C-alpha cells in the first residue's frame, strides 16, 4: 500500500505559514493510528513544521536537495521509495503530494470545515480524472469532519 494522507479545508488548503491552521484531536489520533509502524515520506518544510520529530515508531523519510543530519533524507521520492519495504504514507506537503499521485494507490482525505484564505496558503494539488472519490462520510459518528477515499479508476 502506498497512500497519500491529507486533511484539507473547503478551499483545498493544507497549510498556512508552515503550520496546519486547525486542530482536531480525532484527526491527529487517526493519523497516528494509520501511520504507526509504517514509513512516512514528507518534504523538508513539513519535517520542519513537526512539533515532535521524528514521528515516533515510524520510519521518517524527508525529501530534500540538502541533507539533514537528524533524519534519513533522499533527493527524490523515487529514490526513497526504492528503499522501502511495507506500507508507505506520503504525508505532505504540496510538492510531495503532487509527485506521489503517480505512485500512490489511494488518497485518504479528511475534510475540515474551517475556511482558510489569505496569503501563504498551501493547496492540495488538482486531483486528476484517474481518481475516483468515495462518498463523503463523517470521520466518526457525530464528527464535524468528513472523510473520503480516492482510488484509481480501473
Ligand atoms: N493538512 C495536511 O494534511 C498537511 C500535511 C503535511 C503538511 N501540511 C502543511 O503543508 C505545509 C508544508 O508544505 P510545503 O508544500 O510548503 O512543503 P513540503 O512539501 O513539506 O517541503 C518542500 C520542500 O521539500 C523538498 N521537496 C519537495 N518535493 C521535492 C522533490 N520532488 N524533490 C526534491 N525535494 C523536494 C524541497 O526541500 P529543499 O528545499 O530542502 O530541497 C522543498 O523545498 C505546511 O504548512 C504544513 O503544515 C499539511
TrEMBL record:
- Reported EC number(s) for this entry are 1.5.1.3
Query: What keywords appear on the UniProt entry?
Result: NADP, One-carbon metabolism, Oxidoreductase
Please give the Gene3D superfamilies that the UniProt record associates with this protein: Dihydrofolate Reductase, subunit A
Pfam family membership, one: DHFR_1
Listed under GO cellular component are: cytosol
| Main EC class the enzyme belongs to | oxidoreductase
Q: Which InterPro entries match?
A: DHFR, DHFR-like_dom_sf, DHFR_CS, DHFR_dom
Which pathway is it part of?
A: Cofactor biosynthesis; tetrahydrofolate biosynthesis; 5,6,7,8-tetrahydrofolate from 7,8-dihydrofolate: step 1/1
- One record GO biological process: folic acid metabolic process
Identify a single GO molecular function assigned to this protein.
dihydrofolate reductase activity
Q: Give the similarity note.
A: Belongs to the dihydrofolate reductase family.
Indicate yes or no for the key word Oxidoreductase: yes
Organism from which the protein derives: Marine Group III euryarchaeote CG-Epi1
Q: Where is the DHFR domain?
A: 1-154
Q: Mind telling me which CDD domains this protein's record contains?
A: DHFR
> This protein is called what?
dihydrofolate reductase
